[in-house]
Design a protein that fits this description.
The structure is a single chain. The protein is of the alpha/beta class. It folds into two domains: 209 residues, Rossmann fold, CATH 3.40.50.1100; 91 residues, Rossmann fold. The chain is 45% helix and 14% strand. The strands form two sheets. It has a six-stranded mixed beta sheet with strand order 1-2-10-7-8-9, with helices on both faces. A four-stranded parallel beta sheet has the order 5-4-3-6, sandwiched between helices. Strand 7, helix 8 and strand 8 form a beta-alpha-beta unit.
């Protein structure tokens, strides 16, 4: 039964998170898509969020829920970039020290932004599992409060505040598209949408080169990928968690995948036509719509654009294969 061993969060957890963090986040708008896809599509641009990503929601909820402990001990996180920035800012806001373990190949602009929010950055390896192990080691050695990127009920509840805004601003929503990395965002959003908009369909979107959630859903258990290969650096953990898997099994309807070429096309469209700076990870949902991955989605369709910390140099030089 979904949730056995990992209790699912509920709507009241998300409402509590919203009260806790409301003064520290941006209530991002719902923007009609300018392009004509033949359907009513609305964008939820978390690219406009503080730190440029939805991650500040979960990080703030976790850290504020344990504020005294965080200030006394300091916090540590592991992240490819966006969670790192969220933790760094959330910690700084309450006066806590922050350390972040990131990938050796992490994007330079995300590393510098994390340092800019006041965190110490440690390079810990080339995979999501390696940086997690390094962070856990440092947490044990220095008695630091660990802030995981997705496998935590308070993180999930904080991310769910994005869904709460959708449900309040567009109660008639027909479909919600959510990018999947570790699964924290979709777990939180699905909790709210399932409770407040039970008629709506909830669909996750992953890169084809990092589809741990889809593989897990097909297998009926958490599957760890051997390798990942995608331009969407925020959507490529080797595995989701048992906790987020339980939420997805219980509360979402489907998962679809998109290619890197499709993601880049959507990213460029958002920049050039919608005038939104969105990183490839955040553009995955629009890519799914632009390339017919969800042909029967009920309207209105909300596509969550999860982050905007794009490497514009890389986007400008990227070319599609022939």
């Amino acid at each position: 039964m979904p949730g056995m061993g990992h209790p699912l969060i509920e709507l009241e957890d998300v409402r509590a998170a919203h009260q806790r963090i409301a003064d520290g986040i941006v209530r991002t708008p719902l923007l009609p898509l300018k392009a004509d896809l033949g359907r009513r599509v609305i964008l939820k641009p978390e690219s406009l969020q503080r730190t440029g990503s939805f991650k500040i929601r979960g990080a703030s909820n976790k850290i504020r829920a344990h504020a005294d402990d965080a200030r006394r001990r300091g916090v540590i996180a592991y992240s490819s970039g966006n969670h790192a920035q969220g933790v760094a800012l959330a910690a700084a806001t309450i006066g806590a020290r922050a350390t972040v373990v990131t990938l050796d190949q992490a994007l330079a602009h995300k590393v510098e932004a994390t340092r800019g929010y006041g965190a110490e950055v440690v390079f810990g390896g080339t995979t999501s599992l390696a940086i997690r192990e390094r962070a856990e080691q440092l947490a044990a050695e220095h008695d630091l409060l660990l802030i995981p990127p997705f496998d935590d009920p308070e993180l999930i509840a904080g991310q769910g505040t994005c869904g709460l805004e959708i449900a309040e601003d567009l109660p008639e929503v027909g479909t919600v598209l959510v990018p999947i990395g570790g699964g924290g965002l979709i777990s939180g959003v699905a909790t709210v949408i399932r409770a407040l908009c039970p008629h709506a369909t909830i669909i996750g979107v992953e890169p084809v080169g990092a589809c741990a959630a889809m593989r897990s859903r097909q297998a009926g258990r958490v599957v760890t990928l051997e390798t990942v290969d995608t331009i969407a650096d925020g959507l490529k953990p080797l595995a989701i968690s048992e906790r987020t898997f339980a939420h997805m099994q219980a509360r979402i309807d489907d998962i679809v995948v998109v290619t890197d070429v499709e993601i880049l096309e959507a990213t460029r469209h958002l920049l050039e036509r919608e005038k939104l700076v969105v990183e490839p990870s955040g553009a995955a949902t629009l890519a799914a719509l632009m390339h017919g991955r969800v042909p029967t989605a009920r309207e209105p369709i909300v596509a969550i654009l999860s982050g905007g910390n794009a490497d514009l140099t890389a986007l400008g030089s990227a070319t599609s294969p022939a």
